[in-house]
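User: Here's a chain of 454 residues. Predict its fold as tokens.
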Amino acid sequence: MMNDNGNIIIYGYGRYGTFVKSFLEKLKISSHVFRVGTFKSAVEPFLRDDMSPEAKEANRAYLGVLWREYVSTVEAARGLNAGAVENYANNLGPIMKTVDGSFAKAALKTGLVDQLSSRAEQSDYLISEFGKEKDGKSYNNVSYRRYLSAIEGVHDGADPNVAVITAAGTIVDGKAPAGQAAGGDTIAALLKKARLDENVKAVVLRVDSPGGSAFASDIIRDEVLAIKATGKPVVVSMGSLAASGGYWISAPADEIWASPTTITGSIGIFGYFNTFENTAAEVGIYVDGVGTTNLSPILATGIGPLPDSIADIIQQSIEFGYDRFLSVVGEGRGLDKTYVDSVGQGRVWIGERAKGLRLVDKLGNLDDAIASAAKMAKLEKYDVVDMIEKKTPFERILGNMSSQILAASGREDKIRNRRQGAVKTLIAKADEQLAFFEEFNDPNAAYARCLACE
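Assistant: Prediction complete.
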């Protein structure tokens, strides 16, 4: 059922990036890139003005699988003939001409919806199906927040536990709150908690991350290995994305589960930062000084240039990091390092293909992974517990106070109105870019991150 003035537009999947090589050159900003791997396209936006043939090849491969899975799922669910969804996506214009330019009628004609109706008619239908609320104004329903409140907090009973720990978002060094990023110290602390808890008999690490800091990824991996050393099985359940650093932390698990459309792999590493010596010189700013060692000039790097000798050191570190990444995967998956390199080099794989390449073990969802972990731990009865970082009472008070202050000052309404204004896209883009660069905080400036997957 859809509003008679609604629309369904199926864009398909695409991967389009913004390339800033010429832009940086115009500003005389020097980009310093260190990488290993044919397909490590993470830094291409800074080095090119278009997507490389290698990146296009890799992107077409996984996007094609995602599209085929989407099409087959929709056609099966809607009982449509094979090719109906692709025809709608590629020929929407001609289809609309047959229904006087109506998006809604085009969707109805194709079979993507069953009925077109107004909002009032939809409300009446829902009332007939589910009954009225007590006030009689609407149909019986529950808000999403209320629903979550009702189901969250699975109670830990007397049975042994299978602990579920989620690493979602970019992997960053240090701590990070859930929902913002996967802080290496934060995830490692949760894994350690599961390791030391005698009632936890198995751990499921749910990974939904494009990777990030190589250092933070290794901190998390160390805790996975520590859990395994105690004899507790560790099973990884991959979400929609478990690539690069996300795969780094997955590799040592006893078993890896992925969905057919999980984006994974991207076994590669890179370093990147800018210096502004030429930009500064344009406005008469220079850096000069003396140091006691050959490494001292790095203290001036930024406004000052990056010395070639230091660039060489960084490149060596990146190459070492890639070799270590190959070893991490090889050891965790029981694969020869040469073979890992052949499926690595930063290339992205889709879940079903990754299984064939032995990068994952089985295809399934989180429940399948939990059941497998329990079986490995020889548990017939068990409780599933989510291990999350709990806020202190003081942090909860501060969070509530900030919401109340915003509401009382009217600032909340102003923020809402601002977001609805004409500049909301620019503001959102600026916030997004700022958050993006803040995530690059690896102490060694080395990153196992799949930017092409995000």
